[in-house]
Amino acid sequence: MPIHQLPHQLINQIAAGEVVDRPASVLKELLENSLDSGAKQINIDVEQGGIRRIRIGDDGCGIPRSELALALSRHATSKIGSLDDLDRIATLGFRGEALPSIASVSRLSLISRCPGDDTGWRIKANGSETFNDPEPSSHPEGTSVDVRDLFYNVPARRKFLRTERTEFGHLQTLLHRIALSRFDIGMELRHNQRLITHLRPASDREGKERRVAEICGKAFVEQSVYLQQAARGLRLWGWIGQPSFSRSQTDLQNFYVNGRLVRDKVVTHAVRQSYQDVMFHGRHPAYVLFLELNPELVDVNVHPKKHEVRFRDSRIVHDFLYHTLHQVIADVRPGDAVRTHASDQKGTVDLPMAIDSASVQTRDSNALRTPPQLEVAEHMQAYGLLNQAADDLVSAQATNRSPHTDLPPLGYALAQLHGVYVLAQNQHGLIVVDMHAAHERIVYERLKTAFEQGTISSQPLLVPASVTVSRKEADAAVSHRIEFEALGFEVDRITPDKLLIRCVPVLLREADVQALLRDVLADLMAHGSSGRIREAMHGVLATMACHGSVRANRRLTVEEMNSLLRDMENTQRSGQCNHGRPTWTQLSMSELDKLFLRGR
Ligand code: ADP
Ligand code: MG
Question: Taking residues 456-478, what's their average pLDDT?
Fold first, then answer.
């Protein structure tokens, strides 16, 4: 075949291959156009999953009659005019490709009326670049685009379409994601004439949360933290799910850069990192987050579908996201969560302007207070439940019936259940704590802080303990002497296969020091002598924390239980153990009442 110029329609169909692969991608382009037009209300009508028809109407600025043909022509746009404009794009579209691409693979018509005009004008795409004159057509101010019979002329693409239900599912997800980026715009979606989604415009936080709840579920809003943070020209706001609200999929991850939904490696990595060691392995966090920055600092012209971006300085963006989110997650404490559960208010974290100061958020450490009252323990005893534990308690406490206004968030201990759980009473009802998991987190956080400050304090053993190991292990112990010291150990090699432990970290003095040493040694060896060892230190500290925390079946006194509760309130990330499992839960009085069919 000799070289020849391709016909317009074929050029557009080739371009369509990049941006239009299913009804949802058609809707994405049309929605973005409506958003760019300044619309306040957007209505979408879909038939047969969008395969048969997608009609979208907006009340935006409209397209003048004289420009209608251009709107359907390739590389025609009102959004940029020069290369400079490409550096600071404030609209969602700018490539001038969507309408001609869609028109080349469907039957498309466009009606638009500009403010001030007395009628709307309608134009039909016909596959060429020459158009019939627009015809008058009644239409309110704004634009409607009607796309029928998607891929009627591209059988190869048509074959890839799924069932009506699946395609509609994709459409709906797409609408939801875009709806989260523009709370100020009302949106409606109908499928086969049935109203499916109706979203009111929202300007205040309450209205926005209503929309988030409608789209991401009520549970997400209830178990998320609202945040706002700005530094160095970057602003981040939105909702992040508490670690306990993790998902098996990444389906509830919505990240917007200057209002544009993106999937970006830098972002995903920073967010993942901030949930490090509070997220159960294989689980995924949920979030709706908005990053705003000077458009000149982000390149959106990276991908035809425009869902990837490139940051001019991805390091700064990564660090800003990580520091902000890490801190917010670390500050989720029992008190916040109880407040969230109890009164339907979300914890708000309004961090200070500078990144560095985000890390200072102190709470007065609660000294041990005497529990004001113990009704529940008495009840339990009366019903013959938990006799042993309740006995301990009743004898330990005074009964005082003053209202429990002053209770700390996790309340006061009532009993220990089967040597595993601590039961406590707080303002809202019953608290159940997994004592090993909770203690493990506390020890871990203390070790991390001390390690970072180089102040893990060490204590000599009264009787140094000897441990028999392999030669290889003994070699490793010698070569990791510095790391051992930083961790609070003093270990000598006394024979080729024998080590002598002279000092251990104070926090771990109660632990089985031989087993502890073996595990730490194994961890250190697993990471070799490379520079990665410092990065791996959190893992080593987690191993140590596990050894140092109370074992199941140890009887705790009421004082010990209460001090565990107070420590939890004052420890970062205390809602999860080091493996991301929850450390405590609350059963409110109304939940208990429900269990017993007791009306209030
Ligand atoms: P782009 O959005 O990249 O500019 P499109 O092919 O999507 O390219 O649209 C071409 C032009 O048509 C836009 O630049 C805009 O001027 C106009 N347009 C498209 N849809 C609308 C709409 N809903 N309201 C107003 N103008 C629109
Ligand atoms: Mg567009």
Answer: 89
